[in-house]
Amino acid sequence: MDRLDAMFVFAAIADGGSLSAAGRRLNVPLATVSRKLADLEAHLRTRLITRSTRKLELTDAGRDYLDACRQILEQVDEAERAASGAYAKVKGQLVVAAPIVFGRLHVVPVAAAFLDAHPEVDIRLRLGDRNVNLIEEHVDVALRIGALPDSSLVATQVGTVRRVVCASPAYLERFGMPQSLGELAAHRCITFDGLEAASAWAFSDTDGHKHHARVQSRMTVSTADAAIEAAVLGLGLTRVLSYQVADALQDGRLVRVLIDREPPAVPASLIYPGQGRLPMKTRAFIDFAAGRLRERVSALGGTDGGAGLPPPTPVLRRRRGLQP
Question: In this predicted model, what pLDDT tens digit does every residue of 178-190 receive, in sequence order?
């Protein structure tokens, strides 16, 4: 039995939540995954996973063994990168993750300039609004919006972002400008599927107290671009992140409302693993991108409140585990 290969398969099962998911991720038959797990459990003389008709669960021994497997696999991966020269030269594939709209507007131009400066690097850019787990999903750098949990990740802040309510001038001329949260219930609104309840928007005051304002959702969408376009067409009020709507606000297609009730700005940060040495490609990208992203966010002006940034490399650590 190849013990290292068995560890890799076991970790894939734990990450995927099933043997079939591990097989798809590793591109191997389900029977192979099942056999390797059985061989590993026989070698260890203990059960690592309990199986039911609905799901798999790690045993206590399985959870402890998974932690050890991750450490070993990370050390092997680091040794291979070192042997291949990843720490000596800026080269190889760099995996970068970012939210969809921020990635399209800001990360893509910066990444294109980085590739132009580093011909031996290729970038795989993963755009999605789900927070990825950098270690488990093999992501080198991610742009994260929001407060960061205590973890073993390192964060370099590139600006701040806030949630804003806006509408077209034509809509506001027709239906009036809301002056309080209570008046939102009388307005037409455009909401997000799964992001907030279609019947209420959550706000918080300077003391951190939560307030929920009832809204009338005339349209529910799945992307910020769709919400912004519907608002520009005069359908109603929408609530998006400031960077998503900056262009529409600057050219007058939309107008911010309820500015005094906007929640505090949250950080936008580049995050990357803080354990062990960084490959040269990762360090080069962080050094290249941080300042340029900071300039781009700052250029958005008052919508993002990007002034007065803290030092660029606060370290956020926790002894074990990673938050996605």
Answer: 998 889 889 999 9
Domain containing residue 37: CATH number: 1.10.10.10
**What tens digit of pLDDT does each residue of 247-263 get?**
899 889 999 998 888 88
**Are 149 and 316 in contact, with CB atoms under 8 Å apart?**
yes
Helices 3-16 and 60-83: crossing angle, nearest 10°? 120
Cα–Cα distance measured from residue 126 to residue 104, given in angstroms and rounded to the nearest whole number? 11
User: What is the pLDDT confidence band of residue 305, given thresholds at 50, 70 and 90?
Assistant: very low
Question: What is the C-alpha to C-alpha distance for residues 220 and 199, in angstroms, rounded to an integer?
Answer: 11
Domain tally, the chain: 3
**Cα 213 from Cα 202, distance rounded (Å):** 6
Same domain, 155 and 281: yes
Residues 132 and 280 in one domain: yes
Same domain as 156, residue 285 = yes
Statement: residue 129 has pLDDT above 90: no
pLDDT per position as a tens digit, 42-53 = 998 999 998 766
In DSSP terms, 92 is beta-bridged to 121
| Residue 88, pLDDT score | 58
Q: Could you tell me the residue range of the domain that residue 147 belongs to?
A: 92-162+265-303
Give pairs for 112-119: CB < 8 Å, separation 24+: 113/288, 113/292, 114/284, 114/285, 114/288, 114/289, 117/288, 118/90, 118/91, 118/281, 118/284
Residue 136 lies in a domain: yes
Which residues neighbour 254 within 8 Å (Cβ) at sequence distance 6 or greater? 166, 167, 168, 228, 231, 232, 245, 248
d(CA 57, CA 18): 9
The answer to whether residues 143 and 153 belong to one domain is yes
Per the document, the length of the chain is: 324
Residue type (1 letter), 113: A
Q: Is residue 236 part of a domain?
A: yes
Spatial separation of the C-alpha atoms in residues 295 and 48, rounded to whole Å: 49
- Cα–Cα distance measured from residue 174 to residue 157, given in angstroms and rounded to the nearest whole number: 41
